[in-house]
Structures are given as C-alpha cells and as structure tokens.
Amino acid sequence: MTEKRISRVVIAGGGTAGWIAAAALVKQLGPLLDITLVESDEIGTVGVGESTIPTSRRFHQLLGIDEPTFMRETQASFKLGIAFENWTHEGDRYFHSFGQIGRQASWMADFHHFWLEAQKQGFGGSLAEYSLELQAAEAERVVAGPDAPVQYAYHLDATLYARFLRHLSEPAGVRRVEGKISQVEQNADTGFLTALILESGERVEGDLFLDCTGFRALLIEQTLETGFEDWGRWISTDSAFAVQTEAVASPVPYTRAIAHQAGWRWKIPLQHRVGNGLVFCSDFLSPDAARQQLLDAVEGKPLIEPRLIRYRTGQRRKAWNKNCLALGLASGFIEPLESTSIHLIKTAVTRLIQAFPFAGIGEAQVARFNAQARHEMEGVRDFIILHYHLNSRDEPFWERCRTMAIPDSLAARIALFQEGAQAYQASDDLFRVDSWVQVLLGQGVKPRGHHQLARLMPAGELDRVLGELRAGISKAVRGMPLHAETLARYCRASS
Ligand code: FAD
Fold first, then answer.
1. Is 203 helix (H, G, I), strand (E, B) or coil?
2. Domains assigned to the chain
3. What are the phi and psi torsion angles at 493 (to 5°)?
4. Residue with CA at minimum distance from ligand 1 atom 15
5. Which atom, in ligand 1's list, is nearest to the CA of 45?
6. CB contact at 8 A, 113 and 455
7. Predicted confidence (pLDDT) per residue in 305-317, tens digit
8. What's the pLDDT score for residue 3?
9. How many H-runs (helices) and E-runs (strands) does the chain carry?
10. Which runs of E-coded beta strand occur in 58-213?
C-alpha cells in the first residue's frame, strides 16, 4: 500500500475514454479531487466508436445527463439491437436484440426451452416473434424515455460525444490542458508515475494517472511496460476502414453487421449521417481491396476519405499498474462487433469511483480491479469469437475462423447449449441468457435436447400462451411511433 493520499487525478487523453472518466469523476467526487485532462488536438482521437449498448442509459442517469439534450448534441439515434447478415452463409440474417425474449414464467426453465418444445411439436413461429425490441426494430418503431417499454441504446457521433462530455466536465471543475505529452516522469525508487511533461515544457503532476491515450498506451505500456496479452490466435481481424456518408434514408433503430469474405461491415445510422466501416483480416484482404469494397458497398456520398485503423485484439496484462489505470483502447481492444468498448470504459470508471483509493493505492484493491477487468474482457471476447467460429461460409478466412482453437470457456458454453440448450449469465457477466441464445441459434447451433418442463402444461396451453405473447408484442409494436417521429419529437438535432 502506498501511504500517499490520492487527490490529484491526471487524465492523459481526451477521446471518449478520457472525457467519460473526467465527466464521471467530477460529477461523483468533484469536490474531493483535483482533476486535470491533457489532450492533443494535433494527435486527435480514433474517431470511431458510435454504437452502444443499453447500460449507457444507466450511466448517463448517474451523471445527471438529460437524454434529449445528449441525443440532440451527439446527433444520436436509437438502437434496439444488431442485425447480423450473411454470418452463417450468404443471404442468412438474424438479430441480437436487447430486452427479454418471451416471458419469464414461474417455471424454473428459461423461455427458449418452451419455444424449443413448441418447435418440436410443430408450432410457435420464430424466436424473433417473442422479442419486443426485435419486432420494434424491424418495424422501425421506438418509444423513448424512462418509462419506455423497450430496452434501447444509442448510435452517436463519437467526436460530438467527447465534446458533449467535455462541456459537462469543464464547468464542473475539470482543468483541460492542450498539448502533446513528450515525457512521463516516474519516481526512481517505486516506478510510480509523478508527472506528465508536455512539449511546451509544462509539467502536470498527479497522484493517480488514467491512461486514456488510445492505442498508443503512452503511460501503461510505453512507460510502465505492463505487457499485452494478444488474442490474435482467437480473433483474426486486425484492421478496419471507416468512412462517414450522407444519409439517404431515415435511420433504422439498429446497427447492421454484414459479413463479407474476410470480415464484416458496419452501418450505424445517426441523425445527420451514417457511420460505415469494414473490419477485415489483412491476411485475406489487402487494404486497397478493403477500401474499395467499403466504398462500393456504402449508400450515400462519402463525407470523408476512408481511414485505415490497424489494431491488435487483446488486453493489457494489468489494466491497473502502480498508480496508472488504463481505460479505453489503452487497456485493450476486442473488435467492435458487439459495440462493447464504450461500455467497458464506463464499468471501469464506475469501479474506480466505487472504491476510489483516497487513502493510498492498496495491492488488494488493484488485484480486485484487475480481476474484474479481466473477467469482463474475457466474457466479451468469448461472445465475439462465437459469431466467427460457428459459420458455414466457404471462404478461406471463414474456414480459418471455423477451425481455429477457441478458449476453453467458450467451448464449454457451446457444448452446454448443444447438449441441452442450456445458456447462462454468471454474476458479473455482461451478456444475458437471451443474448447467448439468440447468437447460438442465429449461428446455427441445433441443441440435441431441451428442458422438458413445457410437457407438464395441459394440452393446448403452450400453443395458447405463445400465441398470446406473439399477439401482445405485435399489438404493442403497432402502437409505437416510428423511429423518425420519435427522433423528431424527442431529440431532433439542429443540423
Ligand atoms: P482515442 O479516441 O484514440 O483517444 C486518445 C486520446 O489520447 C486523444 O485525445 C489523443 O489526442 C490523446 N493522446 C494520445 N497521445 C497523446 C500525447 N502524446 N499527448 C497528448 N495526448 C495524447 N466502441 C464501441 O463501444 N462501439 C463501437 O461501435 C465501436 N466501434 C469501433 C470501431 C473500430 C474500428 C475501433 C478501432 C474501435 C471501436 N470502438 C467501439 C472502440 C471505441 O472507439 C473506443 O473504445 C473509444 O473511442 C475510446 O477511445 P479512447 O478514448 O481510448 O482513444
């Protein structure tokens, strides 16, 4: 344990991670801390990261963020899930929606077992018909606000989001310093960080440093040499081209993830434009071909030159090392398929605030933080690999994904589902049972059995209950306003 009391927090980097950390720390602990954020306009931010998951809503509530204002300022649209197109084979499509599928009955078996029994008996329709969010997404309808019956997240403009958070943070007391960090000072005995030295010669001293410098990982890696655990043996993609285009239609309330011969393409519709990107594996597609493929696929005029982003999938061996805590891309990156990075920044910041080390940094606390970060990242990693691994596409990239070794933890989950359709969400797991079920079934797993509880229902009862659920969902969706109407009424951005 360091005896040094912690009151001066220095945030290196002003991308999404840096400004999320600044906004949350100043909101929750402002009067107890002296917070400085250093960022370099010249270096800029990664400029992507525009699709989120519903946990963002709760985080924003804790920060006292007014939803319509936030959505207006970031040109945000609503997101009810992700449509996966061509993942098992060309022409295939399934949905990973937010919210609950079916209804949790008073039986001790998950809903999908009842649906599987119905399938076996020849009725019940598709699983998609039991998700309110999925049906609303397909009908392009959304209800907004705290009492909304649907679970939703946002598509947002990453640059505007950082700006929005900055405008909350500075008036609340965060000091922003513009400039390039050229050197990081350490205590010669302990190796703890003591100050950032900027190119201008300015010295920014601190007790706790948050490394939010993106892939550069200036503090946690370049200075502390913490080490990186590479997951390239499990996830093959290593590059992405991103381009923004003019909107040619009303935004749909879901992200599209469209598989191609060597990766996948995203389409994220905002109010003022569309974010597009092509994720690929450079062993199977050259950057020139990937760029052209993206430009050929987008609808609407490109607003910028496509930008190439190269990445390594994996995690820092320790997210927290000495008095430096890495957030965002500096802490690691799992490719963006399930839009989880911004969520991981928020949970890390929340955990820091919940156990803020005012009296000094303790080893037990650091160990606990790192164990939680690892658990979270590995859970997301397994879920992402699942999409790639279970495919029936015939291109060499997909063949490699299908035959690659997978983590034991994922192999066990797949086997459990194959045997008896069992899926689970352990405590601290991000993905719900319904998430696993949708993707496992979507990627073509056919469970050999399922729970038999449904057979205890009187004859005709299962059919009747399922029919009522489907009818209830379709009625509820018909009563919802169109996504475009909700955007116009609730949070229309000015331009
Ligand atoms: P950056 O945005 O790179 O910010 C780094 C900051 O550090 C900048 O302000 C920079 O100026 C500063 N900096 C660096 N070096 C110095 C220096 N020497 N001196 C001063 N300042 C410095 N996440 C999601 O949740 N959803 C998505 O849909 C999604 N899609 C993604 C798609 C791709 C292709 C990639 C690569 C990532 C995606 N992510 C997504 C992840 C998401 O973009 C990041 O988690 C998020 O933007 C946070 O980035 P960051 O703040 O860590 O880094």
1. strand
2. 8-77+155-229+314-379 (3.50.50.60), 105-147+386-478 (no CATH)
3. -80, 155
4. 213
5. 2
6. no
7. 999 999 999 999 9
8. 60
9. 14, 21
10. 77-79, 81-85, 93-97, 153-155, 175-178, 181-186, 193-198, 203-205, 208-211
Q: How far is the CA of 341 from the centre of ligand 1 (A)?
A: 10
SS3 at position 320: strand
What's the whole-number average pLDDT of the chain? 96
Q: State the distance from the centre of ligand 1 to the C-alpha of 334, rounded, in angstroms.
A: 13
Angstrom distances, CA of residue 219 to CA of 71, 126, 309: 33, 50, 21
Report the nearest atom of ligand 1 relative to the CA of 339.
Answer: 26
**CA 22 to ligand 1 centroid distance, Å:** 15
Angle between helices 363-389 and 341-354 (to 10 degrees): 160
CB 194 within 8 A of CB 322: no
Residues labelled catalytic: 79
Cα of 127 vs centre of ligand 1, distance in Å, is: 36
CB 407 within 8 A of CB 385: yes
- CB neighbourhood size of 348 (10 A): 25
Nearest C-alpha neighbor of 329 from the set 215, 190, 231: 215
Predicted TM-score of the model (pTM):
0.97
Q: Which strand (E) or helix (H) includes residue 246?
A: strand 239-246
Cα dist. 300→138, 297, 304 in Å?
22, 10, 12
Ligand 1: residues with CB < 6 A are 13-18, 38-40, 43-46, 48-52, 158, 180-181, 212-214, 216, 218, 240, 242, 277, 309, 311, 328-330, 336, 339-342
Distance between CA atoms of residues 41 and 357, nearest Å? 31
Question: In this structure, how many other beta carbons lie within 10 angstroms of the beta carbon of residue 449?
Answer: 13
Question: Are residues 217 and 211 in contact, defined by beta-carbon separation less than 8 angstroms?
Answer: yes
- The angle subtended at Cα 472 by Cα 469 and Cα 474, nearest 5°, is 110
Structure tokens at 295: 């430009």
Largest CA distance in the chain: 80
Per-residue pLDDT of 297-307, as tens digits, reads 999 999 999 99
Do residues 33 and 22 make contact, with C-beta atoms less than 8 angstroms apart? no
Among 200, 188, 173, 187, smallest CA distance to 11 is for: 173
pLDDT for 107 equals: 80
The β-bridge relationship of strands 255-260 and 81-85 is parallel
Question: Phi, psi (5° rounding) for residue 370?
Answer: -65, -35
DSSP assignment of 47-91, as one string? ----B--THHHHHHHHTT--HHHHHHHTT-EEE-EEEEESSSSTT
Q: Among 19, 37, 43, 82, which residue has the most ligand 1 atoms within 8 Å of its CB, making it the best to mutate?
A: 43
Here the tokens at position 431 are 């993905």
DSSP state of 341: H
In this prediction, residue 418 has a pLDDT band, given cuts at 50, 70 and 90, of very high
Pairing outcome for strands 193-198 and 203-205: antiparallel
81: phi > 0 → left, psi -120 to 50 → alpha, else beta; which? left
